[in-house]
Amino acid sequence: MKLLLHYLKAYRLILFRQHACPRGALLWAYTRLLVQAHWAGKRGSRHSGTQSILLFGKRLYFTSYIFLLYQFEEIFVLDCYRAKTAGEKRFIVDGGSHIGVSVLFFITAYPTASVLAFEPDPQAFHLLQLFVQQNKLHQVQLVNAALAATAGTVSFYAHEELGRLDAGTFTASAQTVALTVPTVQLSTYLTQPVDVLKLDIEGAEVPVIAELVASQKISDIGELVLEFHPAINGEPAPFLSLLEQEGFQATSTTSADLYENTTDYLLHFTRR
């Protein structure tokens, strides 16, 4: 019953809230995902290696229906990355693309935009690369590296269960495996104005933004949406102040409309 109520809440959000993606296509994609996820569950194949599903006319590759469904709800149903400013989007930077659900959102919501996507996890990047190559997404450029304040290498703590979304450079635990991955500075990739910069990089958001400010590339960013991690970065007040000094104003959102007892929240910054 609790699961049914959750799905009903999701359908209500799709039907009665404004979304960046067409409502009919969103409704069909969510229904298709639910049906296939529960059918796979009945067959006992929710975790059975690489699988694929057709969503919004694109084939997406994944290993877990459970985590794919969570990502789809967060990104598409809650519409968490929808731009708050009007106008055509030409260039979007996606930091922390994982298997490509956020990339799918951006190319669906903003079909004229090119996307620069960063993902350090080798397993996730393999599926992200497969998604881009198989769908011939020539407007998407991929970088297999972690965003950081300096270029080099860093220990990245990945999960054997690929669908987990909290892998990162600050998330060591008994359930993770340490890998060495390359790091890059975002500023070195910004050669044109960025309409939307999205960061979901598990605690590295503060040093990455600080590097953009130090390099003065922050002036190229029109709009910024990120997941802030207070357990890693502390209270957000200094971070908010830094971006306010650069001409941004902030709003915050949570996933409480769909999930109970959530502590995650997004910070969305637009130019004043």
Automatic annotation (TrEMBL):
UniProtKB keywords: Methyltransferase, Transferase
Residues annotated as domain Methyltransferase FkbM: 94-248
GO biological process, one term: methylation
SUPFAM superfamilies per the UniProt record, alphabetical: S-adenosyl-L-methionine-dependent methyltransferases
Coiled-coil segments: none
Pfam families: Methyltransf_21
GO molecular function, a single term: methyltransferase activity
PANTHER family recorded: EXPRESSED PROTEIN (PTHR34203:SF13), METHYLTRANSFERASE, FKBM FAMILY PROTEIN (PTHR34203)
NCBIfam families: fkbM_fam (TIGR01444)
Name of protein: FkbM family methyltransferase
